[in-house]
Automatic annotation (TrEMBL):
The lineage of its organism: Bacteria, Pseudomonadati, Pseudomonadota, Gammaproteobacteria, Oceanospirillales. This is 3-demethoxyubiquinol 3-hydroxylase. Keywords: Cell membrane, Iron, Membrane, Metal-binding, Monooxygenase, Oxidoreductase, Ubiquinone biosynthesis. It is an enzyme of class 1 (oxidoreductase). Its EC number is 1.14.99.60. Its cofactor is Fe cation. Catalyzes the hydroxylation of 2-nonaprenyl-3-methyl-6-methoxy-1,4-benzoquinol during ubiquinone biosynthesis. One of its GO terms (biological process) is ubiquinone biosynthetic process. PANTHER family: 5-DEMETHOXYUBIQUINONE HYDROXYLASE, MITOCHONDRIAL, COENZYME Q10 BIOSYNTHESIS PROTEIN 7. The gene is coq7. GO terms for molecular function: 3-demethoxyubiquinol 3-hydroxylase activity; metal ion binding. It is found in: Cell membrane. GO terms for cellular component: plasma membrane. Pathway: Cofactor biosynthesis; ubiquinone biosynthesis.
């Protein structure tokens, strides 16, 4: 029988999750990167910088996803919802590690703004979890929908020779769509169009800044 986690246990878990999310190369994936075995294409300096900018955006998106799930897990009311948040966050660590590894291969780095976006996303996740599990799950579904659109756009925008980054984004898109479906099936509400528009606007702020910083 599993030992029930104490408050101290959960605080230690959260602190460990923060470190694994924000420290470069700290996250380790449970699955092999989709880029494994894919030949590295020839990229000139401009193409490499562009690919790195896109992968930096996707890495920060995964930082935000981690923070969102962790914040929701803290305030979720139903145990099965809390467990789902933690499980989804664990699966998203694969994406975080894949993007981090790909950035290193592109001779680039993660965003300096990650701590700021982590704090904001954690606060949003905790707040929605405190309001309602259905709202919290609905936020997951809406967020994953936005992420899926970004991933599709980035696959089109990547240099033609960057097949390794494209393989990573392709698998991430499959996983994100699955997470969105799970959130809706668990009782998440479908957000109205105006709310989704506001989320897209906030997303644009993140992508424009992180591409360079």
């Amino acid at each position: 029988m599993e030992r029930q986690q104490s408050r101290s246990d959960r605080l230690i878990y959260q602190f460990d999750a923060v470190l694994r999310t924000l420290m470069p190369h700290a996250a380790s994936s449970q699955r092999i990167s989709p880029a494994e075995g894919v030949a590295e294409g020839t990229l000139d300096d401009q193409e490499r910088r562009h690919a790195a900018g896109l992968m930096r955006i996707n890495h920060t998106g995964e930082v935000c996803a981690q923070a969102l799930y962790q914040g929701q897990g803290v305030t979720a009311k139903l145990p099965h919802v809390r467990h789902q948040m933690e499980q989804s966050a664990q699966e998203e660590i694969d994406h975080l590690a894949w993007c981090d590894e790909r950035l290193a291969q592109l001779q680039s780095r993660t965003s300096y703004l990650n701590p700021l976006f982590y704090a904001a996303s954690f606060g949003i996740g905790a707040a929605t979890g405190a309001v309602s599990d259905r709202i919290s799950l609905g936020l997951v579904a809406a967020t994953e929908e936005q992420v899926g659109k970004h991933l599709d756009s980035h696959q089109q925008s990547l240099p033609s020779g960057d097949k390794r980054s494209r393989a990573i984004l392709r698998q991430m898109a499959i996983d994100e769509a699955h997470h969105a479906q799970l959130a809706l099936e668990a009782g998440g509400v479908r957000f109205p169009a105006p709310v989704k528009w506001g989320m897209r606007l906030a997303s644009k702020v993140m992508t424009k800044s992180v591409y360079h910083i």
